[in-house]
Amino acid sequence: MNNRVGIDGRTLTGPFTGDRSYWRGLLSAIAPLAPDLQFYVYSHRPFPAGVLPPASNLVLRVIPSRNERFWSLFTLPACARNDRCALLHVQYSVPFGCSCPVITTVHDISFRLHPEWFPWKHRLLLNIGVALAIRRATKVITVSETSRQDILRLYQCPPDRVVAIPNAISPLFFQPIAVTEAQRLVQEKYGVSTPFVLAVGVLQPRKNIETLAAAFGIAHARYGKPLALVLVGKQGWGVQEETIRARVAQYGGASAADSLVFTGYVPDEDLPFLYTACTVFAYPSLYEGFGIPPLEAMACGAPTLVAHAPPMPEVVDEAALLISPKNPWAWADALLAVLQDADLRDRLREKGPIRARCFSWEESARRTLVLYRQILATASSLA
């Protein structure tokens, strides 16, 4: 049986947030679990040092290209063909001219459910590309049962072709950090010395940061003590820093607006310190395929608030507070409840890590390997 699996590893080469976390977690776990398989990970840019742990069955290949779209559609399948791969695993797309079966991972289809959240160009490319990918892929992996049901409903594909395999988080987030040590790093690197509310995510409409900004303004005015809002994430589209600051000022005044901190994208190794140092973590996103940041925060013991929106109940269960997504007053009440109630904070800190341990990349890798082996065995029998 041909045991070669190709991987489109482009998102490993930059700060691509969730897509990058997916490959890092899955490939780090899957290579040791399948020593009989050979994994070829392709990119058009050099891989950062240490992005994946070394493994004898993990080969990183860099094939430079000036045009990323051409690379993904044509260069990638040619490389997989040259290396005699019997299976190719990609995200969101299926290349043309692929001579082997393809698995595509589609994290979510928010661009179909809420097109108003996306620029027209992104929307057009995703609508065309993902529809083709789902139709042509041998299997589609998605990261929650919520997302699976959305895909089945909107793309009318056979239920057995779409498989929900949940995300997980890096073991890095389960390593204890002293709160004082975390607070010191956050003060030194990000200038935050007061208690703070933390949010993590790309600045884009579906992350619903404007609702959190209003809620923070309300809570800041009512709290009566120093309090900051720290927003971690790169600039996306449709949401500007000036708009968020104005929203905070509208509900909380100039003092609240001055307590807003934008860090931009931060190194992976800083995230556990930020989660550990924060007083409360807030995730108001209106829709996700899975939602990795709340799981990271809970693993670090941060009291966590999430929007009561898909698929958050599936992910956090009873280990976080679920808040009405678009109601800033409800968010403000929840923020103040956590800030002022030590018993509530302690309960959430206790439940969070327990829930986070229900998800592991090893288990997700095992379930992915089942698909790999099924497809490889079928391809071998037909050869």
TrEMBL record:
InterPro entries: Glyco_trans_1 (IPR001296), Glyco_trans_4-like_N (IPR028098). CDD domains: GT4_MtfB-like. Keywords: Transferase. This is Glycosyltransferase. GO terms for biological process: lipopolysaccharide biosynthetic process. Residues 194-352 form the Glycosyl transferase family domain. It comes from Chthonomonas calidirosea (strain DSM 23976 / ICMP 18418 / T49). GO terms for molecular function: glycosyltransferase activity.
